[in-house]
Amino acid sequence: MKPKAIFFDIDNTLYDTAKFAERARRNAINAMREAGLKASEEEAYKALLKVIAKRTSNYDKHFDEMVRNLGQKPDPHIIAAGIGAYHNTKSSILPFPEVKSAILELRDSGYKLYVASEGDSLKQWDKLIRLGLDHLFHDVFVTEDVGRKKSKDFYAAITRKLKLDPKKCIMVGDSEEKDSTPAGEAGMRTVLVTHDGKGRGNADFVIRDLSELKKTLVKLE
Ligand SMILES: [Mg+2]
Fold this sequence. Notes:
Elements: E1 5-8, H1 17-34, H2 41-55, H3 62-69, H4 76-90, H5 99-108, E2 112-117, H6 121-130, E3 139-142, H7 143-146, H8 152-161, E4 169-173, H9 176-185, E5 189-193, E6 205-207, H10 213-218
Parallel strand pairs: 1-2, 1-4, 2-3, 4-5, 5-6
Helix pairs in contact: 1-2, 1-4, 2-3, 8-9
């Protein structure tokens, strides 16, 4: 059965989330050190990761708490330096190198392309815009709109909304838990993107990166 629509996850599928997050955090710390924070980069980085683990990444006082945990007062000069450097780095995220050409090729081949992402709508749109990918998709679905976590119901709601047979839809993502498992439960075909060639889980296909997607789709036709 020829697939009609392809759905993409964003984080770690379209861009290297971990790499850019670490870069933004380290740049923030170094700007804070320049503004007077007394700690080594490694010391501060460890302290920041602890705060994030405790408060999740959607908390907006990370830097204040990190500075306090390092035994200092959250001086606004230091905090503002961190926030500025963090956002400057965040605005320079790039897709994995193969992503743009792979997406354009699939569009040219007649597939409808969508994003199926978990999180906050504004944040996910912001990422797509910064990645330069926002105009390439026919539509974008974020869990916030349809029930927060990526679940079987989230994927089922999308295919219903688009009036598509789930069997003709492909979900492409890096996570078994968020992408291949719930999308598979909703009747979609699934492709797991591993980057390192490890893991398979219950996905129908496994690829290293999006440059391998087109030839994988041919096997489904
Ligand atoms: Mg992901």
